[in-house]
Amino acid sequence: IDIAEYTKLVELMKGFDVVIDETTGAGPIPMNIIKAALEAGTHVINLSLGEKEDKQAAAMSDEFEKAGLSCIVGLGSSPGITNVMARDLVDRLDSVETVEMSFAYESLGTSTLPIKEPFAFAFEEFIESPLIFRDGKLERVPPRSGIQYIEFPAPIGMRAAFCIPHAEVWTIAETFKEKGIKNVSVRAGFAPDFVHKVNFLIECGLMSHDVLKVDGADVIPIDVLFKSLAQLPPEGGEVVDYGCSRVIARGMKGRGRVEYEALMLNRPYKGLTNAQHRTGHSPSIGARMLYRGEIKKRGVFPPERGVEPKLFFKELAKRELEIRVISRELM
């Protein structure tokens, strides 16, 4: 079925309790799916939306709530698991000042590809200007800025992680504004070899959206790049992937400043990449929780506003995704 055909999409969804939308990102398709779910009378879980689409979905919250339906926006890995991790940490604090989220990965397998995108839209995260929440205000910063050197668990190790455009920034800032939150950011610690290759493509102009004239034809370099990569033969080799999601929350507990750090390390899992492992299980758990009545909130909302951390983490652990929390007293 062509999911752009709205009427057929509604008919397809009818009779289902929950629909998982894995199209992700900006553009009309994810919104088409959300609207179709509402008309079909089914709960819907989305992996992520762009800034504009997130606002459009939020405007439909009353309609979903009146219909007794839930639309969970951004229940993948990041956004998704990281949002629920943030909720768990912030709930431990009396007030929160800062939430910092980051992730990294390491592949110890073999690949036959000259360059391997670790997850959808990874290339775009190098060239888009991300939003951060700093000193109580949303602020757009340059691509690949805000570098922090973060030590992730072995075998990942130290990574130069930079800010990336992710929905958690604005949803976490809005969700916890009553607790006094002032700073929110999301960073990615890409593998050094991947960073080197992508930076080379950027320096050569091959990731530009600017139109070039080539033999009289208009050409957009990044479109040519993606088209060329899509023509490569299927990847061969062994998948041995590790990944880590990390969330830090700082704030007040009683009379003292406290920092909580949550880590989720995923190890090689049944031939899946680390992104497939983390991102695939999360919405399936959400769907089961909705079906079992464990998510009671209705309307359109991000995970931190309606997914109960303890129940969610228990399900993650069954799938070899365990979360540990460390607390530190701050001066």
TrEMBL record:
Cited SUPFAM superfamilies: NAD(P)-binding Rossmann-fold domains (SSF51735)
Saccharopine dehydrogenase NADP binding domain residues: 1-72
Domain Saccharopine dehydrogenase-like C-terminal: 76-319
UniProt xrefs under InterPro entries: NAD(P)-bd_dom_sf, Sacchrp_dh-like_C, Sacchrp_dh_NADP-bd
Pfam families, alphabetized: Sacchrp_dh_C, Sacchrp_dh_NADP
Cleaved signal peptide residues: none
Protein name as annotated: Saccharopine dehydrogenase-like C-terminal domain-containing protein
